[in-house]
Amino acid sequence: WFPSNYVLEETDEAAAESPSFLSLRKGASMSNGQGARVLHVVQTLYPFSSVTEEELNFEKGETMEVIEKPENDPEWWKCKNARGQVGLVPKNYVVVLSDGPALHPSHAPQISYAGPACSGRFAGREWYYGNVTRHQAECALNERGVEGDFLIRDSESSPSDFSVSLKASGKNKHFKVQLVDNVYCIGQRRFHTMDELVEHYKKAPIFTSEHGEKLYLVRALQ
């Protein structure tokens, strides 16, 4: 993927673009996971097909429990899925929903509903979700969104800035918007209002892939 109009995508070391892991492990031990302490509850971001017997197949949107983080293999977590199967999962294919075991193991864990914010700089706008994290935005887009759905949230790293989170095929996109002297800056472009920015990227691509696929802000996440 390459930026359109110099719009820069936010990076996330835990979710690298097109991750590829082919037998990188060093003999991680396996067990059936019975009695293991649950470290996290996670949700899968992409489908994964195993290449060794140690690895666990899964589809996008599955919920699993992390029961071990092998010290000799930090890029992989041992997980247990809803069917009781245990195996290794690449950690950048999942997002952590909560720490510890699920309250109702037979059901997917319930996470707090993320919706438009009632307070904050753009309170009342259908696309403004306020102080939600990148992970919460990912979960909301994956659960309820279709390609082109978006939300705008407060930046986690810079309190005065914002991030545009966009549902895209394969992997969601996140773009940083800086507020400088009451002007909203995204890449090399400047806008006097956030509404102006949103309307612009409904008509012009906010991102263009190396194959020419264009991404637009289509509608606020419902």
Notes on the protein architecture:
It is a single chain. The chain has 222 residues and is mainly beta. The protein folds into two domains: 17-109, SH3 type barrels; 112-220, SH2 domain (SHC Adaptor Protein), CATH 3.30.505.10. The chain has two helices and 15 strands. The strands form three sheets. Strands 7, 8, 9, 10, 11, 12 and 15 form a seven-stranded mixed β-sheet that branches. Strands 5-4-3-2-6 form a five-stranded antiparallel β-sheet, covered by helices on one side. A hairpin with a 7-residue loop joins strand 3 (63-68) and strand 4 (76-80).
SSE layout and pairing:
Layout: E1 2-3, E2 40-44, E3 63-68, E4 76-80, E5 86-90, E6 94-99, E7 128-130, H1 134-144, E8 149-154, E9 162-166, E10 173-180, E11 183-186, E12 189-191, H2 194-203, E13 207-208, E14 214-215, E15 219-220
Parallel strand pairs: 7-8, 8-15
Antiparallel strand pairs: 1-13, 2-3, 2-6, 3-4, 4-5, 8-9, 9-10, 10-11, 11-12, 13-14
Key descriptive features of the protein:
5-stranded antiparallel β-sheet, 2 domains, 222 residues, mainly beta, SH3 type barrels, SHC Adaptor Protein, single chain, 15 strands
| Number of separate domains | 2
Number of strands: 15
Q: Provide mean pLDDT, rounded.
A: 81
Termini separation (Å)? Answer: 26 Å
Strand proportion: 25-35%
**Percent range for helical residues?**
under 10%
The dominant shape is: elongated
CATH architecture of the largest domain: 2-Layer Sandwich
What is Rg?
A: 19 Å
Q: What is the CATH domain class of the largest domain?
A: Alpha Beta
The number of helical elements comes to 2
SSE pattern, N- to C-terminal = EEEEEEEHEEEEEHEEE
| Major sheet characteristics | 7 strands, mixed
* Content-based structural category: mainly beta
Low-pLDDT parts are: 12-32, 103-111
GO molecular function: receptor tyrosine kinase binding; signaling adaptor activity
Protein name: Cytoplasmic protein NCK2
GO biological process, one term: cell migration
InterPro entries: Nck2_SH2 (IPR035883), Nck2_SH3_3 (IPR035561), SH2 (IPR000980), SH2_dom_sf (IPR036860), SH3-like_dom_sf (IPR036028), SH3_domain (IPR001452), Tyrosine-phos_adapter (IPR051184)
